[in-house]
Design a protein that fits this description.
Strand content: 15-25%
Distance between the termini: 26 Å
Number of helices: 11
Number of strands: 16
Largest sheet: 7 strands, mixed
Radius of gyration: 24 Å
Bound molecules: zinc ion
Length: 414
């Protein structure tokens, strides 16, 4: 493995992770938080400095740019994407990234969380990285390699291509999106504004991982209208919406169909929040499955349980509305595996073994693929996302950057 990109990737990752760009699901604005502009504006400046063309920041908070083709014949337009936001799941303010140079293979400790340990026994992937330069946070925050690593990899590859016009490649479009962590990264205008025939997100984990299968996802909202009355005179009159809500939750298959009881290819129903009073209760659920009929069956099950609880109390009113969120990108990719095959070939050429596991979640690529831009997900090296044990190897990022450069050349040949 050539070390040529190590220093640049490390410098970029340290610069990007120190910027707080956490998204916020409760915010109605786009982007959801103003602080994401600190990353977006920096990328606009950096893209101009390295000589990218058409550098723009859209009104929906996505940075777009072009690396012009170096070949004259017609080639497909390839898109490269990463997200600038970090997860709302853990503190992301005041990230102090730390470099563990030439990692010695012993447990890593954290200055801001004395009890916390990142040990190779608990995380076998870390055990394989002795000698690498490992980056962690300080214990008080997540690191935000998800997805600042993807940003650093794409920016480093872009800088390298712009400085070396002798490398043959077609037109490449770059997009840095906000709000991926809250499922709002792909604006309706993005496919047209990106203008790519196919694209790749750099938002995956262990080296070699090429993901072209995600969950299919629906959200469900259950509303319960009870009958509210003063508890002192409530005999035979009060219909408590909260009791009906708990009946619905208790009737769902909790031992076989929740996130905590499933893995692999099994889907689930999860209650994400429940609020209300005796008069009215609202329950939100997420439904996940890899297959269309499995997802539909979960929606039907929830609706049948709501109807059964409704039948026990005709004075209440229970409604269950199901809305589509995103779909498994495999449904579209299996019709045209070109970008997936390309990613596998580039990974092999980089000296790595491609691994394809279904993602128990979604990516910006799920939505993009559904909207007509086939978009598998490629590894960055990031591990233990969304918490204080998040870490990444600089040398893994170099492997991802090399794969990205091979993709650029090979895409010209498709
Ligand atoms: Zn991510």
């Amino acid at each position: 493995m050539k070390p040529e990109f190590d220093a640049e990737l490390e410098t970029r990752l340290l610069r990007y992770t120190a910027i707080d760009s956490q998204s916020d699901a409760a915010s109605p604005t786009s982007p959801s938080t103003k602080i994401q502009f600190d990353m977006l504006n920096l990328l606009v400046e950096e893209l101009k400095e390295i000589g990218a063309s058409d550098v723009t920041l859209t009104d929906y908070g996505t940075v777009l740019a072009t690396i012009p083709a170096t070949v004259t014949h017609d080639t497909p337009v390839m898109g490269l994407l990463a997200h600038v936001d970090t997860a709302p799941a853990f503190n992301a303010t005041g990230v102090k990234p730390r470099v563990h140079r030439a990692y010695d293979g012993t447990p890593i400790t954290f200055p801001d969380a004395p009890g916390l340990r990142l040990s190779p026994e608990d995380y076998p992937y870390l055990a394989t990285k002795a000698g690498h330069d490992i980056i962690t946070a300080s214990g008080a925050t997540l690191l935000g390699a998800d997805d600042k690593a993807g940003v650093a990899i794409i920016m480093t590859a872009a800088r390298h291509l712009l400085e070396n016009p002798d490398i043959p490649h077609g037109p490449i479009r770059l997009a840095f999106t906000p709000d991926e962590e809250i499922g709002r990264g792909v604006h309706a205008d993005l496919p047209a504004d990106l203008g790519a025939d196919f694209a790749f997100t750099f938002d995956g984990g262990a080296i070699g991982e090429i993901e072209h299968e995600t969950f299919s996802a629906d959200g469900a909202t259950v509303q319960i209208e009870g009958v509210s009355i003063h508890p002192g005179t409530a005999k035979d009159k009060l219909v408590n919406a909260l009791h009906l809500a708990s009946k619905i939750v208790q009737t769902l298959p909790q031992a076989t169909m929740t996130p905590e009881t499933t893995d692999g290819r099994d889907g689930f129903i999860m209650i994400t929040d429940m609020t209300g009073t005796a008069a009215h209760a609202t329950l939100h659920f997420i439904l996940r499955d890899f297959e269309r009929d499995g997802l539909a069956a979960k929606g039907t099950l929830l609706q049948e349980i709501c109807a059964a609880v409704q039948a026990t109390e005709p004075r209440a009113r229970i409604t269950c509305e199901i809305a589509a969120q995103y779909r498994n990108m495999r449904y579209w990719l299996e019709d045209d595996m070109t970008p997936v095959d390309l990613a596998h070939a580039a990974t092999r050429e980089a000296g790595l073994t491609p691994i394809s596991n279904p993602i128990r979640g979604g990516t910006d690529g799920s939505r993009l693929t559904e909207m007509g831009v086939p978009c598998p997900n490629i590894f960055t090296g990031m591990q233990n996302l969304h918490g204080p044990l998040e870490w990444i190897s600089v040398q893994d990022m170099t492997a991802a950057t090399r794969t990205c450069l091979i993709l650029a050349r090979r895409a010209t040949e498709t």
